[in-house]
């Protein structure tokens, strides 16, 4: 089961995407509920395209937005961010020890996000 959970946050609202009881990505803080709902719709639409730009590989041609970007953080973990067609980041992941795990979660989001229910916490 997949669901977007809208939550109150300091200075606004945000969402988490939960798949099989695990939070797989989260949003920025939006000032309004309407902005948060638009962010959810952007994830549903753009994740299903399943375009992945692996920034950990040198000399790789960059894909146009919308896309997932996989990158390595300062601590050596792997993360992704989902960018909308305008280049705005609409969702980010926690860190993964292995890049393969990061890529598996992206694949899962691409398959599940479009049908996720929306729920308020």
TrEMBL record:
<dbReference type="InterPro" id="IPR051141">
    <property type="entry name" value="UPF0339_domain"/>
</dbReference>
<feature type="domain" description="DUF1508">
    <location>
        <begin position="73"/>
        <end position="118"/>
    </location>
</feature>
<protein>
    <submittedName>
        <fullName>Uncharacterized conserved protein</fullName>
    </submittedName>
</protein>
<feature type="domain" description="DUF1508">
    <location>
        <begin position="20"/>
        <end position="54"/>
    </location>
</feature>
<dbReference type="InterPro" id="IPR010879">
    <property type="entry name" value="DUF1508"/>
</dbReference>
<dbReference type="InterPro" id="IPR036913">
    <property type="entry name" value="YegP-like_sf"/>
</dbReference>
<dbReference type="Pfam" id="PF07411">
    <property type="entry name" value="DUF1508"/>
</dbReference>
């Amino acid at each position: 089961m997949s669901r977007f959970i809208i939550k109150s946050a300091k200075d606004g609202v945000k969402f988490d995407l939960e798949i099989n009881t695990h939070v797989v990505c989260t949003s920025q803080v939006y000032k309004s509920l309407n902005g948060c709902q638009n962010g959810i719709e952007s994830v549903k639409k753009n994740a299903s395209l399943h375009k992945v730009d692996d920034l950990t590989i040198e000399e790789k041609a960059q894909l146009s937005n919308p896309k997932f970007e996989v990158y390595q953080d300062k601590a050596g973990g792997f993360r992704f961010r989902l960018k909308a067609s305008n280049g705005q980041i609409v969702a980010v992941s926690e860190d993964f020890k292995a890049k393969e795990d990061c890529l598996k979660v992206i694949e899962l989001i691409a398959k599940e996000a479009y049908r996720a229910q929306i729920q308020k916490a």
